[in-house]
Amino acid sequence: GSVKLAVMAAVLLLFGWLVWASKRCATSADLKGIRVRRFTGSRRLAWEDIQEIRAARNPSAGVGQNQPTLISYAYDGEGRRVQLMYVDDNHVDVEREIAALRAAWEELRGPDWAPDPRARERMERQAVREGRVMKATFWGCGIFLVLFVIAMIVIVTST
To answer: CA triplet 102, 106, 112: central angle to 5 degrees?
Structure first.
């Protein structure tokens, strides 16, 4: 009785929060930098602190329906990646938006701006790590498929 009601109320609250939070998510740019509003807060990146702005393939694009195939990131002064919410191919022309953001970044970051080698190194390590994870995922799926086929053959031929 009361446990079921409490669980239903919790699920409804979670669903309501997800709807509210997803409508709140956004990416905006102004003269000071890029502001990314996410589910759990917002992040401001000053133009001079940004190391890179780029689009990348969405690794989960094949998992669900209506997933964007391209998503966009800005990299902060430490080389950490920040997803630019709704700057994806489901919502905008990604190439045009990234070009506009990069043009603003190049103009507003200041004449003394230079890439940080430590941030660049971190970005490269992250790209290598993501490649390894994708490769391991594909190998794992392939091995699972082979074992599944072998199990089906054994089951079918043993009867």
So the answer is: 150
List the one residue out of 82, 90, 89 whose CA is nearest residue 29: 82
The answer, yes or no, to whether residue 63 has pLDDT greater than 80, is no
Backbone angles phi, psi at 33, to 5 degrees: 160, -155
Q: 70 has which bridge partners? A: 57
Q: In which residue are the tokens 């799926």 written?
A: 141
Phi, psi (degrees; rounded to nearest 5) at 38:
-110, -175
Query: 10 Å Cβ neighbour count for 51?
Result: 23
Residue 120's pLDDT band (boundaries 50, 70, 90)? confident
Instruction: Determine the Cα–Cα distance for residues 144 and 76; give it in Å rounded to an integer.
Output: 38
Could you give the 3-state DSSP secondary structure of residue 57? strand
The H-assigned helical ranges of 25-116 are 94-108
Mean pLDDT over the full length of the chain: 90
**CA-to-CA distance for 85 and 62, rounded, in angstroms?**
19
Nearest-angstrom CA–CA distance, 139 and 145: 10
